[in-house]
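Hello,

I think I submitted the NAP job twice by accident. Can you confirm which output corresponds to this input? Input:
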Amino acid sequence: MEPYFDIVIVGGGPAGLTAAIYARRAGKSVLLLEKESFGGQIASAPKVENFPGLPAVSGAELADRLYGQAESLGARIELEEVLEIRDGTPKRVVTDYGAYAAGAVILAVGMRRRTLGLPGEDGLAGISYCAVCDGAFYAGQDAAVAGGGNTAFQDALYLADICRHVTLIHRRDSFRADPILVAQAAERGNLTLLPSTVVEGLESAGGRLSGLMLRNTETGEASHLPVSALFQAVGQLPESRLAQSLGIPVDGAGFIAAGEDCATPVPGVFAAGDIRAKGVRQLTTACADGAVAALAACRICSQRA
Ligand code: NAP
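Support: Only one job matched these inputs. Its output is below.
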């Protein structure tokens, strides 16, 4: 027989790990499944400065702490990819390793990264999506960051401590990043902000990135920027495959249309964190969703017991 858990959580980011903490404290059996690495996007954040009570902590440390807290409370945590979820009583969660039965399921599947989709970017040395992971390879060299959000600015500030010079390239003339980050970047002597500019192509030498072909979107002027690395921080796309396979509606952008109660139209299936359609995607709101979804899932399990 397949192992049964009161609550199966899909996704090991802040929403999923918070859900595990709440569900274990409520005495439910919990299985958390993650396909790649724990902590979600936060794990690659150089510095988290807006989590209440922790004025400054690295994303990796915060992810470790969340993981440790869920594990020490008795959540079973596995690195397995969920391939399919079948509705029913119990629900059936099929992974690349096996299958589990679940009283309730929490989808905390988050987002996957968007790329610029430039010709030749796949596998080219010098193209990266994680400044914390790869920044040290470009110590003392010139690097660029593409994007105008909080991730791009945090990455650029992190790289400015390591690299000789960093250029932040953004397609519009205003940034969506928090003003405090934009102000910090503007003060850095070795960080140049290049708004209204798009990366049109990559130049390489010996299988490594050597420069970027740029175009100013206002003047149409083309230019060339020699760099050893391009860090792409152009946002994420929702991981809506599992929701769609369960028949759960997603909005035009692919986010699960669940309200503040995190309940989806499929009874016993909840959506928590960045995958849920909402206005504010932050660490704190992901954790809040995890708590709300877990407590609602606990109520369903108790009603059935
Ligand atoms: P984001 O806020 O969605 O920003 C993505 C950036 O990439 C935007 O500036 C966007 O430009 C640009 N972009 C998108 N597609 C592009 C394309 N095809 N070509 C060029 N540029 C493109 O993503 P994020 O920065 O990763 O942040 C995700 C969420 O996490 C946000 O809610 C953010 O606030 C949160 N976060 C918070 C912190 C924090 O410390 N508070 C840190 C990291 C992330 P446009 O602006 O023109 O759309």
